[in-house]
Please model this.
Amino acid sequence: MTPHRMKLKWITFLMAGLAATASYAQQPAQPNVVLIIADDLGVGDVGCYGSKMIRTPNVDRLAAEGLRATDAHSIGSVCTPSRYGMLTGRYYHRYPYNWNGEALVEADRPTIASVFRDNGYATAYFGKVHTGWGERSKERKHRQDIDWNSELPRGVLEMGFDTYFGTPFTHNEPPFVFVEDRHVVGVDPEDPISILMGEAAKESGVTPYNWGVSIGGKAAHDARPVDQIDILVTERAVNYINENGGSKPFFMNLALVAPHVPVAPSKAFKGRTKLGRYGDFVEQMDWCVGQVLDALEAQGLTDNTIVIFTSDNGAIYHPKEHKLGHRSNLDWLGQKTDAWEGGLRVPFIMRWPREIDAGQTNDQLISLMDIPQTVWSAAEVAVPEGAGPDSLNQLALLTGKTDQSERKELLMIGITGCALRSGDWVYIPKSGSQGVTTDPRMSWAMQLAALGLSNSDFDAEGKLKADAPEAQLYNLRTDPQQSTNVVRQYPEVAAKLALRFTKIKKR
Model:
């Protein structure tokens, strides 16, 4: 080989190396993070957790390619406390006021998104948000005092997101519209939106929901067909991935409305299951997950994208599906709203092919509140002091570096009371589920006897026994179904946990 040809060979080799280096440099070293949250999805609604009547191949695929946790819990058995915990890494009961629809996340509060954005990430939120809008005041009347016809007050973008598209509250609550960034989609000044509640809602001639009715705004309401919400939101999420793929790391929160009521699958998914609309709605939700996974794969982002799939709380039981034999919360006691396990134990799946081996199962205690510190650590971002004060970094556990959870205890909120998890123990200072399951006033919900679940404090008809203890204590290792209250058998354990409960609750 002549010196001239040798020189050309080395130049060609060097240029190829530089090109490869440049191509590699275009891919962000930090992982993308995609957080997908279903609404009121129970562990028993998911195939990889044991569902026999609903097919969830995309969520199952996610679990097969990553890690499935079997002891994951929300901090609240309804959506707002749970979502606040995931966004801020902070216990909901730290918020000093009774929430009345205002922007729940304080203006200066670091969030999962704001920390990422401050470290160079693009951030986006698609779907349901239920953490409020605007400022707090004593005179405020929840969402009635928001002008939905003009630029919206402090909300999603102020929580650290560059862009937002989705529903401003749960989809069975007014104003029944889509919001894009700071404006209602399709708003028409000639046909303004008004929210009516109470007697005014009843007199409007429109069937009221729990939080009133939304009148006017026909174009805005038509732009958000109830059976297309998740499909349209997912389309936006997929477009975002396609537009941002590879150029800059991103954090994306996709909050689906399924299977929360109203259960409204689109025409394409009706009739998919023997369970009817509920099963169909869950299968539609799974399809949405698949669209996101396919978009990541098409952009070559699968290997270095952390995908977390979960639900904000346990499922609420529906009589029809229950009668057909479907158990949305498997054998866990209770349902949405309760501080029993059925209201708080949720599916949790995490895939990150670069760091997590496929097919892993983890049985350690994890809270959804731990998500912020965990993904911040994975991305090696700078975290400001005070951010995520109650969130624990579970990265070592989830990537197999350790088999022990950082979390040893967790305060969990029902709608009428709380529970404290400490190791295998669960302590509840009052009797009952702390939610609808043992509250006869909640006649709209299935009660304990109808659910076919048993608890030693209640008789076969679901009534509290006269001699039932005031407090509750369960050991989940020996009694995972919380069938037997052992507070009288272990008074020293109960006394210790009662003191700890009081201390945490005062934070």
